[in-house]
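Many introductory courses stop at the sequence. We go one step further.
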Amino acid sequence: MPRRKAAFTLIELLVVIAIIAILAAILFPVFAQAREKARQTSCLSNMKQWSIGTRMYLSDYDDTVVPCYLYTVHSTYGSLPHGKPVLQWWPDLLNPYVKNDKVWYCPTWTGAPDKYGRESFEPGEGPNKQTLRMSCGCNNWHYWPNGQNQPPILLGAMGVNRPGLAINSNEAEIQRPADLIMALDGYWGNGGWTDSPEIWNPTGHDYRNPAKTVSGAPGTVRGAVNLRHSGGFNAFFADGHARWMRETKHENWLKNPDAKTGDSMDLPEFK
């Protein structure tokens, strides 16, 4: 008699399919976490390059900390004639040292590139070009006690530069460089005052805001800080190191954390 060919029964096939489905349910989140961990590591590596550029800038500019932005022309403010804005952000100022157009945005970031004040730059994408991709918020906490055509009080790390008004930090003013944040995961390019390359106002600090989901921002957002990496964010500091964080503290935003800020927008115990 001819032998019957071996074959799977329907029940056996269903069991195999069920096992594959269970393994996929277990492994797919693991793979996703591994991919995100790789993006987090890449983002942190980018920030370490920023920190090297920052240290080189200090050396060339008599220990002046790179400013958050530099307006050559401003449409409204400053003590020089107004006009069509011409604006450089700190990636533009540091790029001669970093020399890599691709390190200014996080691999997890999906926001819109910045084009404001860049029409006079050369065509293309990258620092000092018409389109700039950057995914961070710099710490230039400041306030204007006498209006925005007079010098501000600068509390954070990076300066505020408008035509005729150049207010920058000097390295000697920084009391605890290992604690002072220069910039962190913050800008997601979707609009709104908290969604900006500058975190200039303490109401945007994460420690005083609940987490929420915002359109266009990977992960969640607390104030102006984007928790895009495993429930936290990357940051780099005035002493040059960079690390992952879950939350900042009030002192992480101040050149002199032991002094009263004088900022009416600050928490009452620190004003």
